[in-house]
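ok so I'm stuck.
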Amino acid sequence: MASHLFHMLLYSAIVAIFFAVLLRRERRGQLRLGAILWSSMVGGALALAYLMFPFPG
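replied:
not stuck anymore, here's the structure
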């Protein structure tokens, strides 16, 4: 369970929750912003990984 994917998902969740609570007061706004932030961080990281896959390291 110590995979890079798990750590990325956990980090994204913690950061999304922090900023959602910090920036929105009502619960619905917090949930919406948290979901948007989490999906954009995870989606962006996976898209970047997909684009970098053809280039060997």
